[in-house]
Protein 1
Amino acid sequence: MRKIMVTLKRVVDYNVRVRIKPDGSGMATDGLKMSVNPFDEIALEEALRMRERGEAGEIAAVAIGGDECQQQLRTGLAMGADRAVLVKTDAEVQPLEAAGILLEMAKREKPDIVIMGKQAIDDDCNQTGQMLATLWGRPQATFASEVQLEGGTARVTREVDAGLEIIEVQLPAVITTDLRLNEPRYIKLPDIMKARSKPLETLAVGELGLSAVPSLKPSGYEPPAQREKGERVEDVAALVGKLRERGLVA
Amino acid sequence: MSKILVVAEHDGISLHSGVARVVSCGLAIGAESLDVAVMGQDCAAVARQAGSIAGVSQVLCLDRAENARPLAAVQAPQLAALAPRGYSHLLGPSTTFGKDLMPRVAALLGVPQVSDIMSVESERRFKRPIYAGNAVLTVEAPADHTVVATARLASWPAASEGGEAGIEEIAVDVELPAHSKWLELKTAETERPDLQSASVVVSGGRALGSADNFSMLYSLADSIGAAVGASRAAVDAGYVSNDMQVGQTGKIIAPALYFAIGISGAIQHLTGIKDAGVIVAINKDPEAPIFEVADIGLVGDLFSIVPELQAALEDS
């Protein structure tokens, strides 16, 4: 039976607007509502559906970060993951380093499919899945909106700028999710209770025997340029008048 | 001074309009030379188009059967194999093509990637948006390593035409994986301008209410030569196809004129249009956040306003 590994990144909730710290040294995330990265939630949902269709067996959820990430792993267990592993580090983890950690996890877990979000909604990098696939020497199917498994292959429909692209990759493979792959389920109270008895293992990042990789140095956070609030017009004639004034329409 | 290699996105026939924008980003880094790599099959025509971009020094043409369709797993080893030719920077577009490919190149080279460069502070220092554009982060790429990056297309003007770069056929000796197979591209046939390069874009949101009602926007767009976009809500509701989505996880665009029609203006949508020249918002809710960023706002029922607007624009 196919084994699946999914990643669950802890991020500031999708609905919360994050601001920069007054001294510009970073983002003010203290006390904000934290959630599973929405794209990772879609990844786990896809894994659960594969298992429900009888296409997959065990689902392991992996998070990287501090102890607080156990919350997101518990959410994943409540959704239906079988077990969870927290790779513990208090340092900032960038995509290349995350991919290196996930590579070690892939060697340990030996999944047939790794499903992860196409990007995290905090750093918006959109890199880790591709980097993991590369380091692992395996194919990738990014921005997936449909996944069909058949034997040792996955046929994946990808959301690309020109439309929908279909590729076929041999397993093991890394699949990254786009928004329309599925709609994640809501968690019911009994599932939360049940999740408490599911295994959640913690590993220190040092135990994985990783070597340091070069990283990007952040050197300042600033607010984006704000657009000036414009004017209201009363009717279509006034709107067209303004557009003609500016030479935007004939 | 930097030696830059830009990877060309193309469909086998035409060069993607974003390539000239990535070239602008490369030139801003301060290029001693800037080459463009075209990976494809029978791609001489695309290579010529790349060579006509002003500022391009040389076009490297990697013509082989495996490159007939773009597969990141197949292209990345070829691009990585070009890096030792003295390139300090490898740049791609921040499109689905570039986002798929460049992290794979970075991982092969063992270096981090800078995503979505919006401005260049120095050879290795760049600004990029995070948190759906709620903040701008300055990052510095490590010294003594190749810089691998994608350029946020909406932040860069297209480099002009008029270049006369030579074309060099290159064969790189790398083993290409056989674990990925390209099968099909389903693309909506349209005569309308490309969403990412159009100077006028008409976008619709959930308030349109149905796929049929979008025909109203197509009609308006066609009367003024505009491209048509949509909010995530409209795509999720099935009114239009995914390739029309504008926003954080869709396309980031910078038209001279943008019509947001029946779009409330979630931050994830606004991040896709903040570089537009003039934003016009039409919405029945006067409190909609779209009015906070719109240059010209009109409160009212889009179903009466849109036909009236089209008639007024045609009446000239």
Protein 2
Amino acid sequence: MLNNEEVLNELKAQFGDKILSSKLDYDTLIVDVPSNSAYAVLEFLKNQPSLKLNFLTTLCGLHFPDHSGAELGVMYQVKNLVSGYSLRLKSYFPITNPKINSVTGLFPSANWMERQEYDFFGIEFEGHPDLRRILNVDDMDYFPMRKEYRLEDGTRDDKEDKYFGR
Amino acid sequence: MSTANSSFEMYDNFDGEIATLNLGPTHPATHGIFQNVLKVDGEKILSSEPTIGYIHRAFEKIAEHRAYYQITTLTDRLNYCSSPINNIGYTMAVEKLAKIQVPKKVDYMRIILMEMARIADHIICDSVIGVDTGALTGFTYIWQWREKIYDMYEEVAGARLTTNMGRIGGFDRDFSPRFHKLIKEFIQDFPKAFEEFNSLLERNRIFMDRCIGAGPISAERALEYGFTGPNLRATGVDYDVRIAHPYSSYEDFDFTVPVGVNGDTYDRFTVRQEEIRQSFKLMKNAYENLPEGKTHANVPDFFLPPKQDVYSKMEQLIYQFKIIMGEVSMPKGEVYFPVEGGNGELGFYIQSDGGRSPYRLHFRRPCFIYYQAYPEMIKGSVLSDAILTMSSMNVIAGELDA
């Protein structure tokens, strides 16, 4: 049975200072890594015989406009189906150069998930076989889940977000 | 068409061995708005290119602008064949975030409703597999039981399809006397009707010939494609969130997780049929052992006070106002909470910055993740099997497109 401490020690032994930070939130281990080593860490988590976190539960984009230099990010949640152990990996990068390696080579299920996050956040997954918009129309010229895009139609001035929440 | 040349060109096109066929977006056989551009050689499918997003409604964006209690109604519209599972799953995710402990009675009520929703979901899927193989009778018979389940939803939540069921912390009221009457009738009469429906299809030679071997996938590929739920179990992997990460007191009950062998349409059908029996057993056990007690946790920050108190007590008036306006703050942090939805692991990832609405809400939608395996599953099969494969995967447009 895996536990958070052992997994973290194993990660630190393998990657050293590439593990930028780690914390426990609601009993889940959350590890931050630089965007250029996210692929390597996921590969290690997947293939290391003692971990075998080989099921990609989900991945999603994140946007923090206040974190300058690391505005956009991706959250990966990987899991060992046998023991049920889950780990969350996060990786941030600047919005001016939103690039991260695609993990489709490790997890074929990441294909559409990455297309979705490209569609909504404009995150460019390098090495993705078919990086196109998936839920929105192809000729959309903005990324709607980024925080600066208003909920209501931006072309109308009679509708403001403050009337619909924050 | 006017010259001989152009009509020859026309014939040239028809002589081409590979034809392009648009299956959808609005095709009666796809049970929803899906487009597939197929390359076919006669009836054989060479490749398929799915286009999705026709009913995308930006729920993740809308959720960032709504108070927590207002998001339940968005989750209805994900898998609208089993809305209560989505509602209650979301509610439980928020409860995990806010560290709310609900009474045992709420857990059991939730199990009853979620298993009822699973029965309704699987009834729809299995009877539609029958329709797509040409057996309309079973569908028309069994759908009245789905209606009976919807009658019970109506008693609990006031709505039939998009139920918006439950509250953060429990239920707004106890089961009504009419609900008790309906569920007793259901428990008494459903097994006979269901076995009758089952006997129409399960060992029916024509049905078996159509389904066995249609749209198969191996366990390895299914796991790589992120399959969960009945579709994964049909390949032989016994992963069920109710067992792996018990929530809502599922650990109190004894039930089995059926698995298939070949991962084809027939296995998906039989796995769902057995799950209906297991869900019925769970629902019956939970109903018969329903504990006494309150139907909501003691969380005045989330739970609307009784109306007579709002009119007579200052504190209750303040709570009423704060809840309705959504001015309830949440702890900071992030949670991922999975439930076993009708189609698999339905996960809610909430990132909270302490404000009135989630900073980021992400739905792990099982349909969206496994539908990407569809081109691989139908490659090389005939067109009619492609339709059958899609209905046996139970791809729900609402969940696919969010």
Protein 3
Amino acid sequence: MVDLLAKTACDGLASLNIGTVSLREGRAVPMTTLAPFRGQQVALDAALQAAHGLGFPPIGGSCQREEARALWFGRDLGLLMGVEPEATLAQYAALTDQSQGWAVMQLAGLGAEEVLARLCPVDLRLSAFGVGAALRTEAKHMQASICRLEEDCFQIMVFRSMARTMYHDLKTAMEARAARG
Amino acid sequence: MRIHCPLCGARDRREFSYKGAALVRPLAAAEPEAWHAYVNLRENPAGPLAELWYHEMGCGSWLQVTRDTVNHSVLEVVLARDTALGAGA
């Protein structure tokens, strides 16, 4: 059997440190969308608690427990990251493997909000978008998911095919932000 | 112009794509005149108009947006799922 090499979405794209802001690829982890069947969201929430110790994410939010994180990913849609979903969840939701399908990047440091403000038409300041908040928005014409992991660290996700474009746009915005000092 | 998505909150117009007037779909067995009206005939009011918008860059919901065509003010936004638009389907 041939040994296949897994390449992450940002393979070949160097980590960046520009001014006070850094960009690097997130660790490759299993990712699964959870789409609860109609009326099954409460049952799915309980099953998630039992299986992984976290609930179904509220609208605009996320849940975390150790390595596992569940992001709000759209209407009636959550994204479970970091763990393989237990088979019991399939009773209450459609589970779809998304691993390797999304480019996951982390933008961190003082001024990361100002970099994102150049790309996204939403208010991502701490006062409006706290730690753990997660939303779907546009990032330079790409459908993105953004989550604030820590006070000064954002996770940015776009479709894998757009990894290089997102990287380029983030790099340009980081340079523009650094140039203003 | 901003549209207040019931799930995501107020979002910029660029996150949405426009479908057209929000019309109740006729039953499959309805008269051809009813389907002709549904497919082809449109009101063109100077004032409030119910429309369908898709929150493409956000939560992925279809929304019924009531918009004043004179001044573009958005009067009401509800999830299309919660309307009776597809009742005939």
